[in-house]
């Protein structure tokens, strides 16, 4: 098994790719992924299985990025799903799905984009499956969450921050 210093090498990165063996090529990738924390509540079972009213689903998500060391960050997708109907709560699922991301030799704007747009995009299908299975295991039809455009959300938030900081200026670098 590789030690922490060899993790990025295990991603098929060639340290000799740079001039004279220097490791200066920009690289990024997912090292591992895991369920960090999960809660499934089915508070009104078995009565809730008999309820006939239409359910309303509230889906919320958040992205956190925390450095583990200079080259590794932990990305956490926090997903909360609440299903309610007229009679009461059907279920509540809270998931913190984590992933370790390795990055080396990336400019700051590229690493920020990778942490908050690309890595969540890569992790989300797995978190979505965990949610679908948890809803099914609670006794309801699996919840199929639509894909999320993390890149679009990221760009929207960057543009919003730029507008707040500089009035109605157009973002620099967009064509």
Quick gist of this model?
By secondary structure, this protein is an alpha+beta fold.
Poorly predicted sequence stretches spanning 5 or more consecutive residues? 1-18, 169-175
Quote the CATH topology.
Answer: Bacterial Protein-export protein SecB
- Helix % is 25-40%
Average pLDDT for all residues? 86
How many beta-strand runs?
A: 4
Tell me the count of domains: 1
Please give a structural write-up.
With 175 residues, the protein is of the alpha+beta class. It has a single domain (26-151), classed as Bacterial Protein-export protein SecB (Roll). Helices cover 27% and strands 33% of the residues. It has two helices and four strands, in the order ββββαα. The chain has helices at 108-137, 150-166, and strands at 27-41, 56-67, 72-85, 88-104. It has a four-stranded antiparallel β-sheet with strand order 1-4-3-2, covered by helices on one side. α1 crosses α2. The longest helix is centred in the C-terminal third of the chain and has 30 residues, at 108-137. The relative contact order is 0.16. Residues 1-18 and 169-175 have low confidence and may be disordered.
Write the layout of secondary structure elements.
Layout (H helix, E strand, L loop, with lengths): L26 E15 L14 E12 L4 E14 L2 E17 L3 H30 L12 H17 L9
Antiparallel strand pairs: 1-4, 2-3, 3-4
């Amino acid at each position: 098994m590789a030690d922490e210093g060899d993790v990025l090498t295990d991603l098929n990165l060639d340290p000799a790719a740079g001039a004279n063996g220097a490791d200066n090529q920009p690289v990024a990738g997912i090292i591992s992924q895991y369920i960090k924390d999960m809660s499934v509540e089915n508070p009104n079972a078995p009565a809730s299985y008999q309820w006939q009213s239409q359910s309303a689903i509230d889906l919320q998500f958040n992205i956190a990025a925390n450095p583990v060391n200079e080259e590794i960050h932990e990305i956490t997708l926090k997903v909360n799903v609440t299903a309610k109907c007229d009679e009461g709560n059907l279920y509540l699922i809270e998931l913190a799905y984590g992933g370790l991301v390795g990055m080396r030799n990336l400019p700051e704007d590229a690493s920020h984009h990778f942490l908050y747009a690309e890595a969540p995009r890569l992790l989300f299908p797995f978190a979505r499956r965990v949610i679908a299975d948890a809803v099914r295991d609670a006794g309801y039809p699996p919840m199929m969450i639509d894909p999320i455009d993390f890149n679009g959300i990221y760009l929207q938030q960057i543009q919003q921050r730029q507008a707040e900081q500089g009035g109605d200026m157009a973002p620099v670098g967009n064509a």
